[in-house]
Amino acid sequence: MNKLKFIIGIFSLIWISACTDFVEPAIPYSDFTTGVYLRTVQTKSNTLNFFDLDNAKWNVILEVVGENEGKDLAKDVEVYVRRRRGAALTPYVKLRTIPGSEFGAYPGTRVFPAAPNRNFPAKEVIVTANEALTAMGFTKADIFGGDAIEIRLVLNTNDGRTFSDNNLSSDISAGAFYASPFFYRVSVVCPSDLAGKYKAKTTGWCGTVFEGDVEFKKDGATANYIILTTIKGTSVEDFTMGGYEACYGQDVANGSRGLRLTDSCNKIAFNASQSQFGDSFSVTSIAVEGTKLTIGWITNWDTGGGVFESGTSEITRTDGKNWPALTK
């Protein structure tokens, strides 16, 4: 029975340890040292908009967690940045040093962790795209969509210790409770907003014109779009935007075998997949004039005598917005 009580006590201690920031041990702190970490309490912005770098920023709220509710532990926090492009990395450069004295009362209303008696020193930290680029010696012309700005934090304590992403455990860096990676990869993204229902006027390779409705439907969270054309009252996947209907005078079978219109930082193309008939599509031209987008397209299907399925589709917005500056 005593052994059972001992086992239950051990499991109780483990459970308490997993659910609290600091367990007061039954031995004096002077006999051992404890670590310090920077908990990411709130992430307000973790991407940079390629089309609006002047206003783009990384924005988080951090708090110093350690014994004595984290007080008087942090001497300072060093902030380093570098650019990632695929596997290529620039060297880290120091952006700035945040004095420990700037960590104080929690800014705003605490949202995590929702537990009482938490009063760790906190600070909202912002790194703008422009200041990161300046620190690295870059301009906006040196950043492409798909790049990333990597941010590394180094916490120096008043007793001479240093904590960063090179001396922490996976629980501290990736655990939802601790949330202290000391490292953040901030992606440069190109938001794509082509989705909607529009009016189409397509002139096919045969010279016949189709006029009707077309929809650009976003494919999940990607910048890829399914093109749906209304043919005889039915919405079907038709990347000719009425060209088949104009030149063949027949309904188009549904299903495109993965064909998509892609938007990569305002560059429009078709992906490598094929249409429902096994044909590949290519964009031959793009022109934007306010609410009108003109797409020239061609397939690899020779209709005879070297005349390939092709067409010009004028897509007119009806939502009062202009098309972005799209290119081929």
Any overview of this molecule?
Helices cover 11% and strands 41% of the residues. With 328 residues, it is mainly beta. It has 2 domains: 35-189, Sandwich (Immunoglobulin-like); 196-316, Lipocalin. Strands 11, 12, 13, 14, 15, 16, 17, 18 and 19 form a 9-stranded antiparallel sheet that branches. Strands 2, 4, 5, 6, 8, 9 and 10 form a 7-stranded mixed sheet that branches. Strand 18 and strand 19 form a beta hairpin. The longest helix has 18 residues, at 2-19. The protein is elongated, with a radius of gyration of 29 Å.
Structural class: mainly beta
| Element string (H = helix, E = strand) | HEEEEEEEHEEHEEEEEHEEEEE
* Total of helices: 4
Main sheet, how many strands, which sense, barrel? 9 strands, antiparallel
The termini sit apart by 77 Å
What proportion strand? Answer: 35-45%
How many distinct folded domains? Answer: 2
Q: In terms of topology, how is this protein built?
A:
Elements: H1 2-19, E1 37-45, E2 47-49, E3 57-65, E4 74-85, E5 88-89, E6 93-99, E7 122-128, H2 129-136, E8 148-157, E9 162-163, H3 170-174, E10 183-189, E11 196-204, E12 209-218, E13 224-231, E14 234-237, H4 243-248, E15 261-264, E16 267-270, E17 281-289, E18 292-302, E19 308-316
Parallel strand pairs: 2-10
Antiparallel strand pairs: 1-3, 3-7, 4-5, 4-6, 4-8, 8-9, 8-10, 11-12, 11-19, 12-13, 13-14, 13-15, 15-16, 17-18, 18-19
Brief characterization of the structure:
The protein has 328 residues and is mostly beta strands.
